[in-house]
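Input structure tokens:
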């Protein structure tokens, strides 16, 4: 039997997967990045418009499992108006959530991914959009993949 918190988290992930936020090509993006998870088949392009060190706008397109799509959706909602340093700090929060299940009080909707740590094969699905957004804000041109040692 699922407890209320687990059920809430599942609802958040399902909602963002079925109705992803910011799911479109951002026409005025100046920092696009691609991410691919070859084992699961997740493939996303993130579009960021970064000005004066701030993520002014962000969107994504692509296809993948419910976990990766929800992660990309929540990522876009969370990172608008954030700095590169804040994006990296949130990456670290999400990475910790999906690999250990630990959540701090500032995780907000990102806490929905705490249960992913129980399913190691899904960790790469949840973290893929976050690797892609770091590449985008850093201006990296090469696609990112989850098939690295430090994922």
């Amino acid at each position: 039997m699922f407890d209320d918190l687990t059920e809430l988290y599942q609802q958040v992930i399902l909602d963002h997967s079925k109705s992803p936020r910011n799911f479109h090509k951002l026409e005025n993006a100046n920092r696009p990045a691609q991410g691919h998870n070859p084992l699961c088949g997740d493939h996303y392009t993130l579009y960021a418009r970064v000005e004066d060190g701030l993520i002014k706008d962000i969107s994504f397109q692509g296809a993948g499992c419910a976990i990766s799509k929800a992660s990309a959706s929540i990522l876009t909602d969370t990172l608008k108006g954030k700095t590169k340093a804040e994006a990296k700090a949130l990456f670290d929060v999400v990475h910790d959530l999906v690999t250990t299940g630990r959540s701090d009080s500032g995780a907000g909707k990102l806490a929905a991914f705490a249960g992913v740590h129980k399913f190691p094969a899904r960790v790469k699905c949840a973290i893929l959009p976050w690797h892609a957004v770091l590449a985008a804000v850093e201006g990296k041109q090469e696609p990112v993949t989850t098939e690295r040692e430090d994922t």
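The two ends are 31 Å apart (CA to CA). The beta strands are 31-37, 42-51, 54-63, 144-145.
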